[in-house]
């Protein structure tokens, strides 16, 4: 994994993604005592950073692989990202989705040209269904977060961030499956100027926090969090990157996530999903440590269920 890999990826996915804006808020600076910069991946195509990793992974496939299509299992954002990226690159996308995935997400996948295969809502069933399609169609399996090309793709958000704001002291990102934070950590390692990466994670699903403590991949007994995008666990490809390059993970309570989300909706007038509020909540929880620092926060996505807001 080199700086050139990231640089080449930025070039190859450029036609398929938006270069997202960076917003600031003097009021949020005042509340936190920190100079804040928000990288708005909620304005990315299909509404989340995952478009980057999907475009990166598909563009790396050979002609023969592209002809046979791609397959993944996902209940939401990666399902949409892979469908849209595949569509843009003229590749067939098979998406295994749990039967209880929100209808709005299923509709979005269909709208982007993905073919949905429904399965019972367990990881085992999801993997089984994806393997079946791999065998039957010869499609290439792409993991939402534990695939090096996906991770490099997700890292392009932080590359852009540091190109626009080269003197950030910290970048905060949410931790779910680990793809975004691993990619961010690689980008900061190669492009940062003494910048550190900090993860935000709910107490309710703090597997990554515990994994860093124990040195091995931990799992969650419960997934009782409003941050529905962060319920997945780390993988064997992204975990070593996180161990090496992420400074720490700060955990937050459910109420802190909701408050942080509401603050961004109310004060910045932009829509973010709960998972996306977690790194901002982490900063607010520990704000005394970051006074007067320049802090970048990756707003990972805006695919929120408007019918089901927590406030």
Q: Indicate the proportion of strand residues.
A: 15-25%
The total count of strands amounts to 10
Largest sheet: 6 strands, mixed
General form:
globular
Rg of Cα set: 18 Å
Report the helical percentage: 40-55%
Mean pLDDT figure: 95
Structural class computed from helices and strand pairing:
alpha/beta
Architecture overview:
With 311 residues, this protein is α/β, with parallel strands linked by helices. The chain is 46% helix and 15% strand. The chain contains 13 helices and 10 strands. Strands 1-2-10-7-8-9 form a 6-stranded mixed beta sheet, with helices on both faces. Strands 5-4-3-6 form a 4-stranded parallel beta sheet, with helices on both faces. Helix 3 (50-59) packs across helix 5. The longest helix has 17 residues, at 148-164. The mean pLDDT is 95.
Topology of helices and strands:
Blueprint: H1 3-13, E1 22-23, H2 26-32, E2 35-40, H3 50-59, H4 63-68, E3 70-73, H5 77-88, E4 93-98, H6 103-111, E5 115-119, H7 123-137, E6 140-141, H8 148-164, E7 170-174, H9 179-191, E8 196-202, H10 207-214, H11 238-245, E9 248-252, H12 254-268, H13 274-285, E10 294-299
Parallel strand pairs: 2-10, 3-4, 3-6, 4-5, 7-8, 7-10, 8-9
Antiparallel strand pairs: 1-2
